[in-house]
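Final report, results section. Input specification for complex C-07:
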Amino acid sequence: MLIDRPAPVVSDQGQEAQHEPGLSRRTFLTVGAAVGGGLFLSVGLPLRMKTAVAAPPTDFAPSAFVRIGRDGQVVLTIPQVEMGQGTYTSLSMLIAEELEVELAQVNVAHAPADDKLYGNRLLGFQATGGSTSVRVFFEPLRQAGAAARMMLVASAAETWHVAPASCRAEKGAVIHPESGRRLRYGELVDKAASMPVPDKIILKDRKDFSLIGTPAKRIDSADKVNGRAVYGIDVKVPGMKIATVAACPVFGGKLADLDDTAARAVNGVRQIVQLDDAVAVVADHMGAARKGLAALKITWDEGPNAAFSTADLVAQLEAASQRSGVVGMKQGDVEVALKGAARKVEAVYQLPLLAHATMEPLNCTVHVREDSCDVWVGSQVVSRAQRTAADVTGLPPEKITVHNQFLGGGFGRRLEVDYVTQAVRIAKQVDGPVKVVWTREEDIQHDIYRPYYYDRLTAGLDASGRPVSFHHRTVGSSIVARWLPPAFKNDLDLDAVKAAAGPYEFPNVLVDWVRQEPPAGLTTGWWRGVGVTHNAFMVEGFVDELAAAAGQDPVAYRRALLGKEPRAAAVLSLAAEKAGWGNAMTPGSGRGVALILGFGTYMAQVAEVAVDRDGGVRVTRVVCAVDCGTIVNPDTIRAQIEGGIMFGLSAVLYGEITLKDGRVEQSNFDSYKPLRIDEAPAVEVYLVDSSEAPGGMGEPGTSTIAPAVINAVFAATGTRLRKLPIDPADLKHA
Amino acid sequence: MTFTVKINGSAHQVDVDGDTPLLWVLRDVLGMTGTKFGCGMALCGACTVHLDGVATRCCITTVDSVGDAAVTTIEAIGDTPAGRKVQKAWLDLDVVQCGYCQSGQIMSAAALLATNPHPSDADIDDAMSGNVCRCGTYVRIRKAVKQAALVRGAAVQGD
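Structure output:
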């Protein structure tokens, strides 16, 4: 069950807990905590949102994450947002493990906007992305659970006049085995609320874990199979209108003139809202809003980009690739080593602009009042949603309440707040709440796209075929400079060069980055797998070329370069073994491998493909081995790999945003094609048992698949593809 | 204009233009938000409902075309034997990720099993290929439909 409002915590000394490695004492309240007044809304059923009840003032809420009521109800406020990756389950497991409650006893709440309480220390603010959730919160959430457990145990011990060490917590109760006495947590909350937060929080020994590392059922499944789960687009607010919007189809263009006579005549249309770059139709329902939108006669001022095309974009990048870039990684001297090499291999690899196309179209519901503003949205950056609403309304951030909801997919799209900004701008002109819903066409044509990358790779091989020099020049726009300026230092975008030499040992290596931005108005952003997805395609394709140039087996060739990375070598060997690497395949079929180290996770995939006479590629089987350190929920890891592979395959086979006359040429799932079930390969996942620090799992599956497929296509056909998506014309054979 | 639509066993009167897609009648007029908007062009299947048991994309089904047909949505599919088995299989295998497309997936799967209790792999791919899942839960959807098919046979006999 999902609770809308978290523990009504009182923010404390204003210290920024998110910058500290563990959970600081400051994140806890030193006095027994939840001072009532907070609303306690359940949204298990949308209608229940109306039946808010006051939160009992007596709850035990020792941190911003844990709250226990007199009725024994445990509410966990999850700092990261749920967009399918299973974080509500895995982060709940971390708390529940230490709190000694069963997952079935737990309710979760979406976190409100609060960087101090819910910040992500790897990103510096409240954000869900970059496969960081378990990595960041593995310690802090266990500490939150353990602190609460220790206070409950201390309360029981004091009640019984026994030593806390003689008691233990189990399944939501404290027991005293010697005497057989038992008190449920609900019975202890009053006393626990007056207990001091322990100075030293004692975490369970890993060997005693009963939840962490075992497959757990998702806690959000039940509401997602019966239509009850509430996404941003499902929010209902009394008096709410529905709006849909058209922004200038030429990026960077403005509204010049509008004839809305016909639109106003549509039954159910209430208002037309003009922004400088968009028009919105406000109506009783989306059917009327869309009909009204179609009836608008809009004249756009197309601006300076009206003639811009993909060819222009690629020409700019190609020219930029001739310049040397900012150094991201350097060891030895690649120039000197290349001169002494027996053989030189060079290649250009390209990746297209990509849209995200989350299944839930972008939407945001806003109610602007004179002195306050409510925002209902599914966002990966909740505090940024709050800040943009504050900026647009001119209200202070504390007057903006963001009600975050389940996300119908994120993939990086909801790391942006452009759609929130726009919705608030529209809502400022509307009397009462308004839900702004983008059409799929608007979603595809006004995305913040994954950058186009144009990379040059050069290697020198010695007489035995082993690389003596490796130079990767990556060329593209900077996401970090726009999205996280404090992290953009020394003119270097660390994401652009992330994992740009793979996990390999090269005696001489140079990675440099040339920044080339598209014209203003065309914005680039995060896409699942971020820099690792980009560079894994380049590096793993190119290393496969080096193996071919050396006349060596791709797996053996890679393994020989992994002397310092035994975990990488292990997943490579495991994937190869499970895939039957080296076994014969039928003509027209092939097997390809790819290996990554990213997000703290090692992953190898072997893809099997069949290429037909028309050049059509069918991916039939993917075998994946992963070492992500300590495993929290193995079932979620499998699901993220299965799904991440499919997401990546959409991009391998189809994904491409192209521009013509300053417009995006794709518009819906017919022209921006997603992978469908009849194209989905069988997937096998093998997990390596490990006690290393947990690695991220939301993205590696996506990052690894593209090069594995490209390399399999080479094995099947002898044709080396260096650009996505696959163009069957390149593989056609009579 | 007023239309009477029979949804999940109850008659609902709505006052909208006849060319309004059933999707918006369900979601925005009647507040039944389990049925999802994904593309508006019958390309993704997120809006799948049943009209007299037949899987139908309600984003392109105008309200004036529904007539006397019985509309079943995700909110009530659990009341049908096939729907119940599908939902259980979905839970047993934890198919969902973001979950947004899953209402449509479950409606398509329930319609398949209601008419073809023992679908082959090809039948499943064929019946489900109109439903897009961007999270990529296809591996588990296949397994879950198969599992639901097995359970269903036994359960129908025992009912």
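The longest helix of chain B spans residues 138-158. Residues 2-72 of chain B form a domain with the Ubiquitin-like (UB roll) fold (CATH 3.10.20.30). This concludes the modelling results for the funded period.
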